[in-house]
Design goal:
The chain is mainly β. The chain has 5 domains: 92 residues, Cadherins (Immunoglobulin-like); 102 residues, Sandwich (Immunoglobulin-like); 111 residues, Immunoglobulin-like (Sandwich); 94 residues, Cadherins (Immunoglobulin-like, Sandwich); 101 residues, Cadherins (Immunoglobulin-like). It is built from 2 helices and 42 strands. The strands form 12 sheets. The protein has a 4-stranded mixed beta sheet, covered by helices on one side. The radius of gyration is 49 Å and the shape is elongated. It is a single-pass type I membrane protein. It comes from Pongo abelii. It holds the Pfam family Cadherin. It is found in: Cell membrane.
């Protein structure tokens, strides 16, 4: 490695002598403090100077900010091995000393300063590629919209870093082009020719160019025309009262909703409302999030509350617009509101994971079936015991440890669905605090109700002797859940012996007609049994008794037997009038 360096130095010396650099004076001389200017980007292995020293000096040593770029040979040739970069280091402070054969300094060290001269090798750059600004409608020409700033890493206050700004394009060109100007050297963007109107064009897009003598860069500017802000936000009420919170209320909780309105153009910077806490919260415990569509403010907890340091705080809010108010308009007391925050030092009750728990099961589930579960957590980590409240029908029980809910009696959708009960979570130990949530059990229907008559048909009769066949219309129903098209009952006579005298015909899904087949009836009581089938899954069939007396009232009732054997054995003596 030493041999290689020595050969490199020897080659440089030969080049130095061949080009005339070895002449005493300009390119060589005694060891003394010197300053050398060198342009960045110059080729490597360039000779800077040859230092000479008197015996017993036989070699030289270079120290300081060499950055592994600057070298000095045994013959005193100072050179650099690669191109310099002013933006990396503008000045290199070096020291050169002359050494004897034993490596002992016999002359120096002396300071050598390398000044790196700038060339234009850096492109000007904006701080960001896209900017957004706004201008109020009816603003006068010359009003400032904002200032764009670009930077050039080349040497300041030189032609290499001297920047010019210009507008390349405006879109749309309505009502004309050249509505904006930018100061050539300062970068200030201004309204140029005339006032703007939001109803004409609500938004403009500009392409801006910044350039030095060799390079150029572009950025884009979006300019929004906004409504004049001549209306202040006004709170719906000035005092939101007292709010009491436990000191361990969760960070992020919304504790209060506030509302102010602004009469300026909706969804603009003039009507948008930002809420700030101005008094009573020096610790920054509270914040306000604004709904951009409604301007509703949601007061949230940003930092934990502390009973010991701030048990009572008088909080004051202020509602402001992001856009400045026009001259002569100022915010007043209508833009402020307050509330008192009271922090309590109390044990906190268990917290349910949901406000309402919901489950769905079939109404015919077996007793002992798990129908749902609830979960709660005690902030202090205590165990929780669950219980039910409001189980008026006695259908449910809850595992007091796990929160699992089971059926303990037959369920009935027709009696109540959804079935609503309250679940109570009580901490075990401590202060035995509890909290309540809702459990809603939705029961899905099964076909478990017999068809029956929709009402009590009283006061019906046939006159004897019949002059013509007679008929009566009746309606059927049941208590099961039906699709949107309603029930579809089918009707038939209870036994074959009735078919000689009577017939039943379906009118629609709920109505049928009972008619006499002839007029040759004796004057006595007749019992007519009719089957009504609901066509469900499984199908259920009810038996309706239509006892009648010619020249008398026809009484109607439902016979609750499900089996056909009971239909055949029904006797007239069993029939009784229906009562409401």
């Amino acid at each position: 490695m030493i041999l290689q360096a020595h050969l490199h130095s020897l080659c440089l010396l030969m080049l130095f002598l061949a080009t005339g650099y070895g002449q005493e004076g300009k390119f060589s001389g005694p060891l003394k403090p010197m300053t050398f200017p060198i342009y960045e980007g110059e080729e490597s292995s360039q000779i800077i100077f040859q230092f000479k020293a008197n015996p017993p000096a036989v070699t030289f040593e270079l120290t300081g900010e060499t950055d592994n770029i600057f070298m000095i040979g045994r013959e005193g040739l100072l050179y650099h091995t690669r191109a310099l970069d002013r933006e990396t280091r503008s000045t290199h402070n070096l020291q050169v000393a002359a050494l004897d054969a034993n490596g002992i300094i016999v002359e120096g060290p002396v300071p050598i300063t390398i000044e790196v001269k700038d060339i234009n090798d850096n492109r000007p750059m904006f701080l960001q590629s896209k900017y957004e600004g706004s201008v109020r409608q009816n603003s006068r020409p010359g009003n400032s919209i904002g200032t764009l700033t670009a930077h050039d890493r080349d040497e300041e206050n030189t032609a290499n870093s001297f920047l010019n700004y210009s507008i390349v394009e405006q879109t749309p060109k309505l009502p004309m082009d050249g509505l904006f100007l930018i100061q050539t050297y300062a970068g200030m963007l201004q309204l140029a020719k005339q006032s703007l109107k939001k109803q004409d064009t609500p938004q403009y897009n500009l392409t801006i160019e910044v350039s030095d003598k060799d390079f150029k860069t572009f950025c884009f500017v979006q300019i929004n025309v906004i409504d004049i802000n001549d209306q202040i936000p006004i709170f719906e009420k000035s005092d939101y009262g007292n709010l009491t919170l436990a000191e361990d209320t969760n960070v992020g909780s919304t504790i209060l909703t506030i509302q102010a309105t602004d009469a300026d153009e909706p969804f603009t910077g003039s009507s948008k409302i930002l809420y700030h806490v101005t008094k009573g919260d020096s610790e920054g415990r509270l914040g306000v999030d604004t709904d951009p569509h409604t301007n509703t403010g949601y007061v949230i907890i940003k930092k934990p509350l502390d009973f010991e340091t701030a048990a009572v705080s008088n909080i004051v809010f202020k509602a402001e617009n992001p856009e400045p108010l026009v001259s002569g308009v100022t915010y007043n007391a209508s833009s402020s509101a307050k509330f008192m925050l009271i922090v309590t030092d109390v044990n906190e009750a268990p917290q349910f994971s949901q406000h309402i728990f919901q489950a769905k099961v079939s109404e015919d589930v077996a007793i002992g079936t798990k129908v749902g579960n609830v979960t709660a957590k005690d902030p202090e980590g205590l165990d929780i015991s669950y219980s039910l409240r409001g189980d008026t029908r006695g259908w449910l029980k809850i595992d007091h440890v796990t929160g699992e809910i089971f059926s303990v009696a037959p369920l009935d959708r027709e009696a109540g669905s959804p079935y609503r009960v309250q679940v109570v979570a009580t901490e075990v130990g401590g202060s035995s605090l509890s909290s309540v949530s809702e459990f809603h059990l939705i029961l899905t229907d099964v076909n478990d109700n017999l068809p029956r008559l929709a009402k009590d048909y009283t006061g019906l009769f046939f006159c004897h002797p019949l002059s013509a066949p007679g008929s009566l219309i009746f309606e059927a129903t049941d208590d099961d859940q039906h699709l949107f098209r309603g029930p579809h009952f089918t009707f038939s006579l209870g036994n074959g012996s009735l078919q000689n005298d009577w017939e039943v015909s379906k009118i629609n899904g709920t109505h049928a007609r009972l008619s006499t087949r002839h007029t040759d009836f004796e004057e006595r009581e007749y019992v007519v049994l009719i089957h009504i089938n609901d066509g469900g899954r499984p199908p259920l069939e009810g038996i309706v008794s239509l006892p009648g007396i010619i020249l008398a009232v026809v009484f109607i009732r439902i016979k609750k037997d499900k089996g056909k054997d009971n239909v055949e054995s029904a006797q007239a003596s069993e029939v009784k009038p229906l009562r409401s």
